Every structure is written in structure tokens, then in C-alpha cells.
Amino acid sequence: MQVSIITLFPQIFREIFSVSIIKRAQEQGKIKINLIDLREFGIGKHKIVDDKPYGGGTGMVLRVDVVARAIEASRMKIKRESVILLDPKGKKYDQVLAKKLSHLDHLILVCGHYEGFDERVRDLVDYEISIGDYVLSGGEAPAIVIVDSVTRLIPGVLKKSDATVFESFAKIGGKRMLEYPHYTRPRLWRGKKVPPVLLSGNFAEIEKYRQKQAKKITRKRRPDL
Q1: Residue 3's pLDDT is what?
Q2: Residues 6+ apart with CB under 8 A from 135
Q3: End-to-end CA separation in angstroms for the chain
């Protein structure tokens, strides 16, 4: 998979994409990340990317012509390619959408800044995504979230193939559940013991216990699931 990130601040991504799972995925050739500086497509000598909103208002708005040039330059014009606008007004991001995006060959993420985008930018994209019901200063943090969540779903990226099967938001009995609790050493810590069933060696009982705990936690914390 190739990921192209259109941003005014490419330096934000370099450190975080040079460690851990995303670093290994790049080294293995599972993912290629291309950082595209929106400023390079700006207008005139000063590479202007924004302007005052018509009708007045606070802040500056990213120009549609500048964003369009950046998107057009990023496209590989292949079948499984999608352009995503990172915007608080978009569809809320979840594991189902992460899985869908992981099947793409090319993902183009457009990071906003300032007061937002010219409304006509929405005609240039395939999806509009929000990572939550809050407003950030730009689309860079959401882009990092999406790249991380999608990368780990690409086959071969994680060493253990079942790592993405038995975790929060995976399906258990046809329903999405939060993950069951985990324990490790010490067995007793500040009066709290590891549940005896996990020490029993009876894997059928352990599995039954874990599914029961997953359902219990989901009902309590995320009944909407």
C-alpha cells in the first residue's frame, strides 16, 4: 500500500513514522508513505495556500485550487485509490472503516489547517473522516491515527496473524466486542490476584472466561456496540 499525506507540516510525521510497527512495515515494503507539502502548490512568490472567507468571519480558509493541484499531483490513477478529507464534519472513524481502507492500494489523506477548507474541496474527495467529536488545530493528528490503524491491518505487518482478530472491536459471535482483560506477573499485587482460571492450563475454560469478560466489559462501557 502507498499512503500520500498532503499537509502544511510534513515534519510532524517524520519522527513518528520512523519507529515501531510503521517503521518495520516500511522496511518490509508493506507500506510506502509519501509526504506532500501543500505549500509547494501555493500561489505566487510567497506560495499562498489560504485566503479570507467570502462573507467575512474569523480565520483563513484553504483555497480549493491549491488543494486540487496537490490532490491531482498525488494521484496514481489506479483502481483501488481513495482520497480522504480529514474534517470534523466527516464520518466518524471506526475499526470497520479502518479494515476497508486497509484493502486499498493508494490512500491519499488531505490534512486541513486554519479555519478549514473551501467547501468545493469536498467535491474532490471520496471520503470525509473525523476521528471524534472534537476539533483539532489540523488534520495531522487524524492522519497519524489512520495510518497507524490501517498499517497494522495489512497482512504480514504484525508478526502474529491473529493479533488483529482477538482485540477490541473484533467480532465475537457476530458482534463487535471490547477486548477481555489481560494479566501478567506478579500473580498478587497490592491485594489483587490474577483470576485462577488463567493459571489453570484449561484452555477451553480460559476461552470461555475471556469471552464472558469481553461481553461484560462491552455491555458496561460500550452498550452501543
Answers
A1: 98
A2: 88
A3: 30
Quick check: is 62 in a domain? Answer: yes
User: Do 145 and 216 fall within a single domain?
Assistant: no
In this structure, the number of other CB atoms found within 10 A of the CB of residue 57 comes to: 10
**Tens of pLDDT along 164-202?**
555 666 766 678 899 899 999 999 999 999 999 999 999
Cell of 223: 452498550
Same domain, 147 and 207: no
